[in-house]
C-alpha cells in the first residue's frame, strides 16, 4: 500500500513538474511582458480553481461564491496599496488630504476604523487570508452543522456573492463603489507597474501557486483526503464511524477560501486595481467553470483550466465581445456533459491508455526482430505508470 | 432512570412521526456478551429502533442508556466513539476506495480534522486491518476497489469496518439479505465469533439463520415488544404465530 501511495504521489509530481516548467521557463521565454502579465492574472484565478478542486471535487460541495473570497483577499491588498498611494503629499488638493480619493469625493473626512489595520503590511498579509477564512467559517459552520448541503449550499453561496457585491457598490465612501480601488502604484515604495516588478510578481504568483498545489496534494494523500472521498460517497457511513462530518467540510471550505484570498491579493498586485466585478455571481461561476474544464479532481488540471478558459476569454472577447458569455455557457455545458472529469479526466481516460497502447505495440515490434533491436527493458515496462493511471482517484460523478 | 448492569438499557422509548408512533413506550435490555435477534413483520419498527439507538432518528420520549450513559441527546459521532457500531441494511461502503482504505478509514484514531491530517498508517493499523480482513474473509482482496466486490463481500466489508472500531455494541440490520446459502453459513460463523466480549443486536427475517445464531429473540409488532425469550419459546407463542410466523 505504501508503495502504491508513493507511486501516486510520484505520478502527480511528474505533472506538477511539467506545469512548473511551463509556467516558470517556457511562458516567460516566449511571451512578452504584457502577455505574461495576463498569464499572471489568469494564474490568480487558478488559486480559486485549486481550492474548488478540494471543496467541490474532493469534498463534493459546490460553491458558487468563491468570488467572495477572491474579492475579500483582493480588497484587503488593495486597501493597503490605496492607503500607500494616498499619502498627504499626492492628495494635497483634496479637502481632506491623506485619505483615499473616493472617500474625499464622498465627504468622508477621516479614515474609517475599518481601514486602520491596512496601514500595516504584515497585518494586511494576515488579513488577506484571515478575512476570507473567517467569513467562510461563519457561512460553512452555520450551514454544515445544520446539514445544509448540495444545491441549497450552492444557492446560499451565490446569494452571499450577490450581497457582498451590493454592499461594496452601496458603501461607496468606504469601498470605492462600482469603480473599485484604482491608481494603486507602489508596495512599500516599490513601483509595481514596471516591467521588472511584473516579472517578480509573476514569479511570486507561480511559486505560491505551486506551494498551494503541494499543500492540497499533501492533504489529499492524508487520511483527511480519503475521508473527503468517503464522505462524498457515503456521508452517513462516515458519520456513523465516529467522525463529525461537518468539521471536515468546514475545514475544506475554509482552505479553499484562504487560497482564493491569496489569489485575490496577487490579482490586485499584478493588475493594479480591484473592483466589485471580480466578486459577484458571474465571476464566481466562471471560477467553477475553470475547475470543471480543467478537471475537478485534478489540482494541476484546474490550473490548465484557468489558463485555457481565460486565454479563450481574452481571445474571443477581443473579437466577439457579445458572444463570449454564450460561448462560456456552451463550454460549461459541453464539458460537464461530455467529459465530466474535464481535461485531466480526458487525459487519464483517453490519452494515457492510447499512449500506453502505442508503446506496447512498439515494444512488440521491437521484440520480434533480432534481439539487438530490443530496447532496454527497464525503459519500456515502468510499472509506476500503470499504477499511476489506475489509482488516480477517478470516481463516478457525485 | 436507575443505572443497570446491562450494556444497553432502553426504557419507555417513544418516537412518533406526525402522530404515528413508530416505537411506542418500548423497554429493552441487552446484556454484555449477548447476541440478540429482533424479528417482526414489516413496519414493526425494528430499523427505527436501531436508528434511535445510533442517533439517526431522535427520540420523542424515553431513555436509551449505553453503559449507563444517556444517549438520547448525544450527537451521532459521539455515540460511535462511546462504542456503538451500526451496519445499515444496504451495504454502506466507500465504493471508490480499496478494501484496505475502507478498513483504514474506519480505524478509530485521527478522528478530528487535524488528527486526520497527522494520521499515519502505522504497522499497528496495518496489522489491525490484516486481522479484521482475515476475520471477514477478504484478506486476499485488500487492494480491490470495494465497488467491485460481490454483494455478500460488501456486507462483510461493512461488518469489518465496524469491527475495526472494536465496538461494545454492534447493531446489524439484515446482514444476510441477498446472500447465497454458503455466504449465510459463513456469516453465521462470523457472527458467533464476533459476539465475544460485546453485545450484538441483529435484525433478521430468515428463521433458520435466527435459530443458528440467537441467544435470545425479541419479537416486535407495531412499535411494541410482543414477546421475548429463547427461540423455541418465542416460536411456540400463539401471539407471535398470529402476527408474524403464521400457522
Q: How would you describe the overall organization of this protein?
A:
The complex is a heterodimer of chains A (398) and B (247). A two-stranded antiparallel sheet of chain A has the order 1-2. Chain A is built from 17 helices and 2 strands. Chain A has helices spanning 2-30, 33-58, 66-85, 101-105, 121-145, 150-170, 172-175, 195-221, 223-233, 235-239, 245-271, 281-294, 299-319, 324-338, 342-367, 377-380, 383-391, and strands at 186-187, 190-191. Residues 371-398 of chain A have low confidence and may be disordered. Helix content of chain A is 73%, strand content 1%. Chain B is an alpha/beta fold and 247 residues long. Helix content of chain B is 37%, strand content 24%. Chain B contains 10 helices and 10 strands. Chain B has a 6-stranded mixed β-sheet with strand order 6-7-8-3-9-10, sandwiched between helices. A 4-stranded antiparallel β-sheet of chain B has the order 2-1-4-5, with helices on one face. Classes of the chains: A mainly alpha (398), B alpha/beta (247). Chain A binds chain B through residues 1-2, 4, 219, 222-224, 226-227, 229-230, 233-234, 236-245, 247-248, 251, 393, 395-396, and chain B through 54, 56, 75-77, 80-81, 85-86, 88, 92-97, 100-102, 104-106, 108, 110-113, 116-119, 121, 126, 142-143, 158, 161, 165.
CATH topology of chain A: ABC transporter involved in vitamin B12 uptake, BtuC
Major beta sheet summary of chain B = 6 strands, mixed
Enumerate how many helices of chain B there are, as a single number: 10
H/E element sequence of chain A? HHHHHHHEEHHHHHHHHHH
Q: What's the short version?
A:
The complex is a heterodimer of chains A (398) and B (247). Chain A is built from 17 helices and 2 strands.
